[in-house]
Amino acid sequence: MQETVPTTQAPPAEPSARRSLRWTTLAMWAGLLALLALTGWGLLRTTAERPAAGQPAPTFEMQFYDGYGWEGRPLADLADMHGQIVVLNFWASWCVECRLEADMLENSWRKYRDQGVVFLGIAHVDTEPKSLAYLSEFNITYPNAPDLGTAVSRKYEITGVPETFIIDRTGTIAHVQIGPISERALHGIIDGLLGQGG
Amino acid sequence: MIADFGYTALLFAFAVAIYAVGAAWYGRRQNKPAWVESARNATILTFPLLALASGALVYLLVTGDFSINYVWQVSSRGMPTYLKVTSLWGGQAGSLLFWNLLLAAFTATAMARKWQEDKPLMPYAIIVASFTQIFFLGISAFVENPFARLPFTPPDGNGLNPLLRHPGMIIHPPMLYLGFVGFTIPYAFAMAALMANRLDDRWIQTTRRWTLVAWLFLSLGLILGGRWAYDVLGWGGYWAWDPVENASLMPWLAGTAFLHSVMIQEKRNIFKRWNVFLVVLTYSLVILGTFIVRSGVISSVHSFAQSAIGPLFFGFIVIMFIFSAYWMTVRREALVSENHLDSFLSREAAFLYNNFLFLAILAIVFLFTYYPIFSELFTGEKGFVGPPVYERALAPLFAVLLVLMGVAPLTMWYRTTLKRLELAARWPALAALLVIVALFALGMRSWGALLGFWIVAFSTILTLIEFWKGTRARMRKGEAPWTAYANLMARNRRRYGGYWIHLGVLVMAFGIIGTEIFQQETQIRLQTGERVALGYYEAEFKGVSRFPGPDDLLITEAQVDVYQNGRFVTTLTPRTELYTRTGQPMTIPSARSTVAEDFYILLINWEPTTANAATLRLYLNPLINWVWAGGFVFVLGTLIAAWPDPRDEKVRVARQERLVVSAAD
Amino acid sequence: MKTYRLRFVIVAILGLALGLTAVPALAQDGVVSDDAVNAVAKDIYCPVCENTPLDVCPTQACADWRDLIRTQLSEGKSPQEVREYFAQIYGDGVLANPPRRGLSLIVLWILPVVLLLVGVLLFSRYLSDLRAQTASAPRAVTVMTASAPTAVAKSDPAARDDYVARVEQELQKG
After folding, report:
1. Which terminus of chain C, N or C, has less C-beta within 10 A?
2. A149 secondary structure, DSSP code
3. Helix (H, G, I), strand (E, B) or coil at A167
């Protein structure tokens, strides 16, 4: 058997209840859209491509290792080198393939330094003692800086080392090399860039 | 040929799912039940089709047809057969096919049931479930095709990632997938209820067992994952608050809140809107979590390699989230129920506190998991959040939750007096205090541990009292103690199964407090014959042996004699395994497990292991085995709670009749 | 009881904070033990691997970083100084326990506390409103006396307790 006390039907949602209903619905939508936007942005970041030839080279700040400064300066931006050809090389002391091109890079630097070409080395996720040991092992004299906060590596979206970006006088990337670069390719590109624009 | 066969089955399933959505839609619009029936049959059909496709892939894996890209990626000649089978879920494409198989199985089972009074929900449930299938089948068929071929046939495959060759790893993904996919059904029914505008709690009742089973598998997956990490991964722990781990924890948290809050709706018929929201939230977290794992948005050790499915998955998420939010908004007025709360000390209130705490924990885990994205967005740096941050923020919340767990059964529906609560809690609180005093007298000085143990003791006593009260009441009617207990469990599976689950949690908490607060570790390089002490253990390094293992394995094993309080107890053999083909190393610990603790040793490669010297890392993990024991109790409790009870049916039918009668008034 | 809960939370937080203070001692004899290195390495994440702390990371780069930690410790730097050095070179992002500055201060410290407080406030206001609303509105009380449920209720002592108590409440209300 059933017993139900006669009910008083509850009145339809009162104004205050209506208002809170609207607020919670609004909050839910706002939160949802914010989450989707954030996730979408995160997704975009993972598919970001490294800068390609023809695109402007992202500028960045360098705090050079002691003794490895540029024109005597301990600090410089990539933008400061506008007007020169820049060979930007990412390396690390723990990188085996980097060693294969280290001598070649230093020799090329010595060959081209008076022709308005700058060689820059960026130590990717390395430790200072090991980096300095590597540099002295190969008698490297061109400017080198650690990649503080992995900022530069992320700007250039590098996926490993070595990677080399050759940048022309106007600050546009002329060539992207993933992996070691051969002397022939490097000199060929530099000569080509030197040929244009004198 | 087999591959073509498998792919055809897959494509066919995709087409069938599209048909199901179309037919259900058309049948509903035009009010032609025959079309809806046809749609239902179509969804059931996806299961045998997926079974065929999966069977084909397993066949290819076992026979080693390396012309198929996926087979080449995860299988190899030397692998034992059982691993070849489990490599079905060893890589992205295969695991997606496996996901589809489970989804089809669950959907078919849900659709094949007798619908009876739920018939109005059917077309909508079909549409939601089949649309999900369309997405996942589409990904499998067109983006991550497990049957894709290579232009040539390599002589051998890469073999399964070494980390995945352990028994724990074999069972952990299927458990998790069962949990994830399982929540699709309650979600589909909830959305169907919204779309059909049938907002009584039929959908909850229908899917209650589904929810419990899905939640059980999710819990199992989490526990097994922790156990596997501890046994195999070699970092001495079982939970790292890694984004992928969190991705499976978050739906679990929402699901647990949901499991509790539906009890209020069933008893008092209130908080309907909230329950719909919770089930949608749980499922959304499942989808979001899967997306995080497979898209690389948040990096983790577990992430699959990035692929094209990221953007597609994101599209699915957008559609699904907006779809759910839309229907919740459209039906919001109808969902408003006469929520009642008589007292802050009532059982309804206790469940609400439970929900609040679980969602607070969820919010914090979510915030910290997403932190890397925030930091990259606003500072350009990829920030990171490690275990200390999580533990610091969550420990107080979990502590309060554990207290609530013990106290809540003391509350009554509608209201409880403070006096009654105090009375019931007084002597358990004191008894727990005695335990703490004893621990203090024995030398324990960590306030965190003392407080934690007090909470565990307090809530355990209260929970045991519930069993005692129930058994004693039955005994008063003349039943013998054990009969009384057995009948108590049999007649109230949900309640007492739930209390067993709570006990399981308390036992796990006991173990977690012990191991987190009192863990000791040390690392040292030893020459042969040298000893190191940790706690009341001593370990003596005896030597190293090197030998090949199955497949392409090279094993380096150290022998370590273990002494406890000066007495020899066992020889442990931590080792490193090197898969020579891929060069991938594994560090396998060796441990001596007792009730009190684990003495756990790892062979470390900071300096190379030679015949006479090795670097060992030793851990003393107090009470760790209580964590696994508690997990076992937890699972047992869930099985009890989920076991079908013929009496439940009678109650359900009677209640249904009552609702029908009062609606007719 | 709200004050009970608040007190509890405070005590819980204090208790756990005090309980988790295990600071390993450094060898002062110039030789840095593996344990000392581990204590620092545990809190620093490998800048290139995915979410692996330095004490378990197997790569060569990580080995180099552990050596760096060891060198710095042997030079007399404190664990905190070593961590800060790593944060400076590789960004705050490598620390498991990000320092309290900048974005991490907001998102990891302020935001959770704010969210929690706001949550507690909104929640308790919701509960109070609900209780006030319930007290003022007469509502349906369906006493479950249909036969099947009664049979169950009578044989289930806990539910029976509930049931009896509820009947008593209703009777008291008159």
Report:
1. C
2. G
3. strand
pLDDT at B170: 82
Residues near C153 by beta carbon (within 8 Å), at least 6 away in sequence: C144, C159, C160, C163
Give me the pLDDT at residue B651, please: 65
User: Tokens 């779309």 belong to which residue?
Assistant: B195
Q: Is any Cβ of chain A less than 8 angstroms from the Cβ of C95?
A: no
List all residues of chain A from 42 to 101 with a beta carbon under 8 Å from chain C.
Answer: 92-94
A60-74, B299-313, B362-376, B619-633, range with the lowest pLDDT: B299-313
B305 in contact with A at a CB cutoff of 8 Å?
no
Question: Angle between the C60-74 and A128-137 helix axes, to the nearest 10 degrees?
Answer: 110
| Cα–Cα distance for residue pair B403/B399, rounded to 1 Å | 7
d(CA B265, CA B493): 18
Helices C79-90, C34-41: axis angle to 10 degrees equals 50
Tokens coding B162: 């070494």
Conformational region of residue B544, where left means phi above 0, alpha means psi within -120 to 50, and beta covers everything else: beta
Strands (E), B363-447: none
- Residues B392-443 have pLDDT tens digits of 899 999 999 999 999 998 888 777 788 888 888 899 999 999 999 999 998 8
Dihedral sign computed on CA atoms, order C114, C117, C120, C122: negative
d(CA A178, CA A167): 15
Confidence of residue B306 (pLDDT cuts 50, 70, 90): low
Question: Which is nearest to B188 in space by CA: B312, B320, B358?
Answer: B320
Nearest CA in chain B to A29: B325
C141 touches B at CB < 8 Å: no
For the complex shown, is ipTM > 0.95?
no
Q: What is the pLDDT of residue B415?
A: 75
Query: Chains with 3 or more CB pairs closer than 8 angstroms to C?
Result: A, B
Q: What is the pTM of this model?
A: 0.85
pLDDT band at C138 (very low <50, low <70, confident <90, very high): low
Residue B183's nearest CA partner among B47, B54, B280 is: B280
Quick check: B146 and B70 in contact, CB under 8 A?
A: yes
What's the one-letter identity of residue B178?
L
| Average per-residue pLDDT for chain B | 87
